Every structure is written in C-alpha cells, then in structure tokens.
Amino acid sequence: MSPPAPDWGAGSVGPGGAITHRTYARAGLFGNPSDQYGGRTIAFSLENFYAEVTLTPAADGDTSVRIQPHPVYDSTEYGSLGELVTRTSTQGLYGGVRLLLAAVKRFAEHCAAHGIPLRSPAGGAAGGSGCGDGDAAQQQPGAGLDPASMDAGPDSGQTVSGLRGFTLSYDTTVPRQTGLSGSSAIIYSAIKCLAQWYGVPASSLPPAARPGLVLSVEAEELGVAAGLQDRVIQVYGGFVHMDFGPGGCYSRLDPGCLPVGRMYLMFSDNPSESGKVHSGVKAKWLAGDPQVRALMSQVMECGVEGLRLLLGPPDEGAGSGARTGASADAAVTGGAADGPVAAGGGRPVREERLAQLMNRNADLRRALFGDAVLGRSNIRMLELARSVGAGANFSGSGGAVVVLCPGGQAQAEALRAAAEAEGFTLLPVRLGPELEHLPPASLPRT
C-alpha cells in the first residue's frame, strides 16, 4: 500500500494498490510558440483527450522496476510490411516506453538533488527520515539522495535500491503526432504516480516546479525541442495566460470569456512528428537572425492582443482587432489572411476579432517555419477553416488546429463537411478542469 499522499489530486487507487493518474491534452490559442522565446501565450486544457499512467505495485520484497510496453504504440510485431509502414507513418517510430523510462530517471534524480526523501511503500524510507514538506525550490541540492549512490548495493547507506518495485503502464486517447501534448501528458501522469507511490507530498514538488521538471524529461533526456507552455497548462488546467518574460507569471482566465460553444478542434489522420517542427528556428533565434526575431516579436504580440480581447468588453477592441486580423500582414504570408472572415451578419464582434487574431497568429507561424516544414496537411486545415469564414490557429507543433466559428452552428457544419471530405476530423472543444490555483489575469499595461 502506498503512503498517504492525498494532495496529488484526482489519482485513483485500484485493486492491489494500483495508482492511476490522468493528464489532459492541451490546445494553444494565442502566442504559440513564443513560450520558448520569452513571450506570452494563452492556452487551455482539452478534456476531449487524455493520457493515463498506472503504477502497479510489485510483491513485497520485489525491488524490480518494470516498464510495460503498450500493445499498439510500442508494438514490435506487424502483420505485414505494409502494416509496419502504415502504422509507423501515422503513429511515429517511438511509443511511450522511452517517455516512462525518462520520467522515472528524472524523477529520482530530481528528488535526490533537492533532498526529497522517497518513502518505501513497504515501510522505512530512502534518503532520510520523514517526508520533508518544504518548497522544492528552497531545498538545498545534495541534502538527500546522491544519484551516484542510487544503486550502490545493500551496504552503501542512502540508496534507493531497497525500495519496493512496481510496473508502469500507460494508455492514451490523444491522437498521435498532432501537437496536442500527448507525450508530456504521459510524462506528467507518470510523475504524479511516482510521487504518490513514494509518499512525496505536493508541497515538496509544488505546482510551480512541475512544468520545468516535465520539460526537463523531454528536452534534456529525450532531446525534444519544446517550451514550458504545454506543461504549464497540464499542471494548472483550465484556461491560462502565460507570461514567460522576465518577472512573468501565470494567471487564470475565466472560461466564460472563451466562446467554447463555437470552438472546434480539427486534426489530421496522417500527422507528422511534432518535435521536429521547432528545429532550425531556435538556432536562428539564438544567432540573432533579424527576420526571425521580428516575426517572433509579432507572435508574442498575438498573446498580448488575445488577452486584451478576452478581458475587454465584448464589443470593444475594434481598432486593434481589425489591425491584427483583417490586414494580417499580406506581405508576410502572401495574402493568405485575406479570407472571408469579415465582421457583420450579426455575429459577436469580439468573436470576429478573436477569429481574425487566430488567423494572424497562424500566418506568422507559417512565415517563421515555412510551409515545407509545416506540411501540406497542416496548411490545408487552415485553408478549409478560412474557406467557411472561420478563424484557425495551430494548436501546437502540427497535426491539429483550433478553430473558432463566429457564424455559429451552420458555419461549423459547413466546415465539418469540408473537413471530412478531405479526411480530417472536426470535434467540439471541451474545456478541461482547473487543477491548481492561479491569480486572475488582468489587462496588460499599454
């Protein structure tokens, strides 16, 4: 039986003491991908899809740690050469085993470096006495487990070798390679399972520290190009504004200011590896490329303008909304923004402005990465949304777009028909629950 850790949220304990934690997907709305560049983003948790990790305790005295491959996503056996090619083309070459391995390794090293003791579920403790309850950010490195002694043998003193073992397994409903943060959902679910299993209280790994820990698994262990945005929204849940600049903070947006009833997710059944999309741009940014720097500054402004529109009165913001939407820098995108998204017809003014800004953000991303990198499928989803007068932006690194239909149900049905005719799926957005406290967002200073 695992030690009590009731402050780890909505994890469930099943037969035999198995612990299961769920993490939802996320969708970026504005400012993405400026989270890697000190920018501002707005994103929301997506209840439509989730990943779950289950930790099943080993028998008493069994210290083995096992990672269980998923029967589909980690398969090494295929019915034919054609099946192998098809499945690896649509699902990628990597499953979730490497994510779980990296999560366990990084979790153990993080606890050791920050003096966070791991309690053996079978009794006793590793790395110290008690379950320290100080903020992880305030604890001194080296105060607990030494990573070098983690498997030094039964007589080495402070080791984790004697801790009761477990098996980690996972499942996911997040469509593969759609940039909806399915990988970090698996990693964060695993970390929550491990923390509950080893009796680590949430105060020793507070919400503010968790996005960075999850990102370190992907960036430092797996070499994935990514920023903090996805991990922040998966830790805090709900609808969040994120300021990644000096002295920045995360703040809570009222779900009521998001027109969820007119928002949809469109994704491809033939996606691409999302982590590769960031390569190249980051190097140019670091090298001081003036065009990349200028474009990224405009992407950041989309996050600021989005906050103004969401927090402002519903029928105000016409000047800034029209400026960032309808014009949409034709010089940057070859006129792609000149679509049928025009105010009028009795549609809510703010929703029109939001749709225009989504188009603006998407155009800037195209200018940054180029259509060849983003892929024809991703560009086609934007085109389909604009063809019916909707606004659309990339929800992440590729494979899906988030869509706002200011024209309501009729507009959405027209888009659904067009999307399905070309093999895309369109689903209504379901906003995920708020999970951790954040201060309310406020209008940016002018």
Automatic annotation (TrEMBL):
Keyword Protease: no
Pfam families (alphabetical): GHMP_kinases_C (PF08544), GHMP_kinases_N (PF00288)
Composition skew (Gly residues), residue ranges: 124-133
Region: Disordered, residue numbers: 123-158, 318-347
Keyword annotations from UniProtKB, A to Z: ATP-binding, Nucleotide-binding
Matching Gene3D superfamilies: 3.30.230.10, GHMP kinase, C-terminal domain (3.30.70.890)
Domain GHMP kinase N-terminal: 162-238
Compositionally biased region (Low complexity): 134-148, 321-341
Entry's Gene Ontology molecular function annotations: ATP binding
PANTHER family found in the cross-reference section: WITH PUTATIVE URIDYL PYROPHOSPHORYLASE-RELATED
Protein name listed in UniProt: GHMP kinase N-terminal domain-containing protein
